[in-house]
Design a protein that fits this description.
Length: 71
């Protein structure tokens, strides 16, 4: 990794872009396990919002919150 804590962003971003709920759940769990903050994870969702549109972003954010709340 790069050592900057950003290793989780690319796989999580791909899962988000693919609208794959299971992969988003896994990506969030891995990000949290790697020490990512809630804010860092939310930033990845926010970056995808302009591409995916509001309805998809809301759905993805709900998947992200499911995992954050379990942590």
């Amino acid at each position: 990794g790069t050592g900057d804590g950003a290793e989780f962003r690319q796989p999580l971003g791909i899962a988000i872009g693919g609208m794959k709920e299971g992969a988003v759940h896994s990506g969030v769990r891995k990000a949290l396990g790697a020490g990512a903050s809630r804010e860092e994870i939310e930033q990845v969702v926010a970056m995808a919002a302009s591409t995916l549109g509001l309805p998809s972003t809301v759905a993805i954010y709900s998947w992200v919150l499911e995992q954050i709340e379990k942590a």
